[in-house]
Amino acid sequence: MNFFQNNENIGQTEINLEQKKVSESLPSGVSSQKGEILPPINYQSEPEKAKGKKTGAWAVFTSTFVTILLAEIGDKTQITTLLMAAESQSPWIVFAGAGSALVITSLLGVLLGQWLASHLSPKTIERSAGIILLLISFTLIVEVFYESFPQLFGN
Known about the structure:
5 helices, mainly alpha
């Protein structure tokens, strides 16, 4: 009797494998012949996955570059560098000094960010940065109103 049960199990396994092959050939979301709902199949090949990682790195680089470039244009650092280059008559030395200073401050920012990321959750860092920027904005707004309307503040 065991002999026949094993043969039945083998036959059933072959049928399940055939049904699985048919199921995998169906588009995602289509139920198989057994009435099962199939998970979506990932057709992305390995080179495409590696390409996605490269794109991610370039996306971070581009985003960082554009953000810092736009933040620094017309910034007090750029205006100070412009004035120092005009006064010193040595624009390339000023460029080397300013560029080195920006690289060092960027390095400090990256190292501090990496350290914070290893100790705090991204959500906490994001909220803290938002609160700090709001406090800076509020301070600047109060300063502008204080200078523009001193009578409101008792001066």
